[in-house]
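Supplementary Note 3. Input sequence used for the single-chain structure prediction.
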Amino acid sequence: SLQCHIQNILYFIFIPWLVLHFSLGTNIFYFLAIISFLLVISFAPAATKKQPIPKHLLKKKKVLSILSFIIIITIALTLEEVFKKNVISGVVIESITLLPVFFPKED
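The predicted structure, written as discrete structure tokens, is reproduced below.
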């Protein structure tokens, strides 16, 4: 839907732009990464009525979500500061979208 596209543009273009243009300390990004990790542990994988996750795949997908998060953050830690902040902000955005508030009410 158009609303979804507008949200994605705001999340994945505007927020990284803000990261580049405002001087936020790296420690803030590390803190946000920890919060994001907790969100991934709590809410991943996210299923909807249109895209349900079979029960037999839930545990595997949760483990893969956590592993993917750890790999991405580990790689980000090796990057230059500006890239590190952008990767972490992307992970933060993705983890926030796991929250139930971002799933439309489906009947």
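Residues 2-102 form one domain. Helices lie at 2-21, 26-43, 55-77, 81-96.
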